[in-house]
Amino acid sequence: MEVIINKKGQETVVGLVGRLDTPASIEIAPQIEDLKEATSGTVILDCKDLEYISSSGLRLFLGLRKAAAEKGGKIVVSNISPEIRSVFMMTGFLNLFEIR
Amino acid sequence: MSTLGDKLKRVSGGLMIVFAAALALEATNVVQYLYSQKVLREEAKKRAETQLETNRIRIMGVVDQAEAAVRNSVWIARWCLEVPDSLHVVARRIVEDNPVVVGSTVALVPGYKGRGPFSPYAFRDGDKISFASLATEEYNYPSHEWFTKPIELGAGYWSEPYFDEGGGNILMTTYSLPITDASGTVAAVVTADISLEWLTEMITDAQVYPHSYGIVLSRAGQVMVSPIETLSMRVSINDFADKAEDKDSFDSLSRSMLSGRSGNIPIKAGGKVSQVFFAPVARTGWSMSIVIPDEEIYRNLKRMGLMVSLLTILGLLLLLFILRAVAEKEKSYRELNEKKGMMEHELMIGRNIQQSMIPHIFPPFPERTDLDMSACLVPAKEVGGDLFDFYIRDEKLFFCIGDVSGKGVPASLVMAVTRSMFRTVSGHENNAAKIVRSINDSMSDMNDSNMFVTFFVGILDLKTGHLCYCNAGHNPPLILTDSIRQLDVMPNVALGIIPGMEFVEQETDLLYDDALFLYTDGLNEAENAAHEQFGMKRMYEVLHTRRGAQAHLDAVVSAVKSFVGDAPQSDDLTMLFIHFLGGANGHILHLNNAISEISRLEGFMVHVASETGIDPGTASAINLALEEAVANVIDYAYPEGVEGPVELEFKNTPRRLTFILTDEGKEFDPTAAPEVDINADVEHRRIGGLGIHLVRSIMDSVSYLRKDGKNILTMIKNI
What are the Cα distances from residue B54, in Å, to B35, B155, B202, B281, B653? Predict the structure, then answer.
């Protein structure tokens, strides 16, 4: 699992590459924790290369969303695949994030 | 080893050949000899006849002179008859005018015209001519043959040769001719004596062969000329006849010669055969002969025969020498062959030992219904460096395949060592990587010959199909499901290269009816005469058809054989086919309660998807549900630091997929957890509870059961 972070002023683009299963979530948790500082601005989670996500991954997304809510920022989820979109739907996450 | 008997056989074999060659050569020699003999005989005949003719002409020359001298004097002698004293002059003239004549007389017939005997004789006496009277009482010429015979015959007559008693003891002969007077009465005889010394010289000098000789016989058979001078005129041919060993031939010769014939008669004398060629001398009644000993005629033949024999013997000796050299060569060749045969025999024993080291009874586990497997090893040389092994311990199939660098005896030794180590180490070790590591360390330590082994170890749980494996530089095995793919292996490094090398164990799960095909590069790199390789494509084509394990190997071997054709096998060919038939119609994935184990679900789902044909989206969703369920077990069933099994069983039934998750942890019912509110806003969203919600959302049925100290969660997905 790979996390590629690009900061452009108030906007931070986070590229997620690979399978975000439970072990991968534990692996990238520190990087996601660091991202919370950027949630005062806009954080775009680019899911173009995200193959899979489990609940532990969703929890990382939710953590960021809560931080953004506190800091007045915004979390955007972009380029999600139909599979991941259905997971978002099942969990009500479509309502929590701005989906692009 | 060559025994004395062999040696004798070989030598006598050589002698037989030499003997046969000798016979053939001898036959040729005999034919040649006979032909040469004939030629030489004819040559002798020709030379003898030519010489006889020459002699005859020369003799006739003298004879003619003498006869002419007498004849030419007849008219004057007749004229002088009236004056007998003048007959001196006639005789003198005959001697004077004819060098060949040594003496001459005109002898009156006693009583002719009333006269008494009268015969004045003129003869050469040194340079002058002297006279003597033959009308002495002592000589009494009318009694002599030279006088009587011509009168009797009424014609010229050559007397028997005789020795001149008066002068010089020389051989003489006389030609005498009767003279008639006008009335026709015989009045006198005119003679001319000729010396036959020239005849002896001529005959002696004119020889056709160094040791041939001439003999001249008189009309009466007296020997006039012969190589033994003392014989001349003292013996008759008949005296020889008495001594002759072959009287018939001699008689025939004597008769022929005395009757004035010419010809050739062989005569045996003194143990030797001689050819006698003879011819008459006209008018004189003589018979000339040339006697040539056969050994003289065939002297060259003898010499030639000797040369040929010598050459033949030399040739035969050379032949014998060559044969012996060939026999020696053949012997050393045979010994080499024997040695080679011995080495081949030993290699054959080595091969048998090697083959007996590896499993060689197929099918190996006829009693098992959960496993159909077979293996084969076809060495390129008598002994090979490939190896495989397998056995079952604790319901687990331990197997390995390997390829030692190089071929032949050295490789086979390394192969034997590797296989022994595999047995030893795997006897008490269930971790494929640890087995490989242990063998690698042992081999690296003692690897002075710098040989290495590519190796693959697998441990297949026959209950569950769970496969642990570790690769050491070997080519990846194939997994045969509905399709064929390579097993995901890390290449690592071959055994015997890096001591202390850390090898990583990998794992996957085999489903019911999945098969594993292991091979060495002798298969895909098998070359035909055009140096094309068998290649993966052909391998896949053969393996694509579903067959029993043994049938698979047979099909591959025959495909390789027909591809390779007459080209020599370039490398050992080893294959292992493992057809898993366990967990009938189902599949169990064994996990430990570690978060990292969750990643194995992905591979598990690849099997499920390939077996059931569900779409990737559904497979991914099921994967998610299973992950959430397993994550719950890992998080809640076992206390921190406690290890325990987690078992996920899959059952493939028509239109529904059933997953049963079992653990032995503390009682935990995920279905009892409160429903998460998916419509809550961010502030009220709970971090937990999403997992079981996803399981419920994805699966069509989720039920929990606590039984025998186990948590059993059954999840069903309709398809």
Answer: 29, 27, 10, 11, 137
| Residue to substitute from A21, A50, A64, A81, interface B, most B β-carbons within 10 A | A21
Nearest CB to B678: which of A26, A65, A91? A91
Q: How far apart are CA A53 and CA A56, in angstroms?
A: 8
Q: Whats the size of chain A, residue-wise? A: 100
Q: What is the pLDDT of residues B58-91, one digit of tens each?
A: 888 888 989 999 998 888 888 888 888 888 888 9
Q: Sorting pLDDT into bands at 50, 70 and 90, what band is B431? A: very high
Q: Which residue has the higher pLDDT, A4 or B612?
A: A4
Using CA atoms, how far apart are residues B587 and B583, in angstroms rounded to an integer? Answer: 6
Backbone angles phi, psi at B531, to 5 degrees: 60, 30
- Rounded Cα gap, residues B87 and B85, in angstroms: 5
Q: Which residues of A touch B678 (CB under 8 A)?
A: 90-92
B594: its two tokens: 């570690």
Backbone φ, ψ for residue B23 (5° rounding): -60, -45
Question: Are A26 and B595 in contact (CB < 8 Å)?
Answer: yes
Question: Which spans in B525-615 are helix H?
Answer: 535-544, 549-564, 600-612
Facing B697 at nearest CB: one of A26, A83, A90: A90
Answer yes or no: is pLDDT of B671 > 60.
Answer: yes
CB contact under 8 A, B599 and A23: yes
Yes or no: say if B698 and B624 are a contact pair by the CB < 8 Å rule.
yes
Residue B232 in this model has a pLDDT that exceeds 70: no
- Establish whether the linkage from the previous residue to B363 is cis, with ω within 30° of 0: yes
Inter-chain residue contact A62 with B685, CB threshold 8 Å: yes
At A88, which amino acid appears?
Answer: F
Q: What is the mean pLDDT of residues B361-383?
A: 83
Q: What is the pTM of this model?
A: 0.42
Q: And the tokens for B409? A: 């005896």
Question: CA separation (Å) from B140 to B133, B144, B146, B213?
Answer: 10, 8, 12, 38
Burial environment of residue B616 by CB neighbours within 10 A (0 to 12, 13 to 18, 19 or more): exposed
Query: Is B167 a residue whose pLDDT tops 80?
Result: no
Q: How far apart are CA B314 and CA B317, in angstroms?
A: 5
Residue B23 confidence (pLDDT) above 70 = yes
β-sheet bridge partners, residue B527: B533
Within B139-218, where are the H helices?
145-153, 197-205
Q: 10 Å Cβ neighbour count for B605? A: 23
Closest-CA residue of chain A to B683: A66
Q: Say what the pLDDT of residue B5 is.
A: 61
Q: How many CA atoms lie within 13 A of A79 on its CB side?
A: 13
Query: With the CA atoms of B695, B696, B702 and B707 taken in that order, what torsion angle do they form, in degrees rounded to the nearest 10?
Result: 60
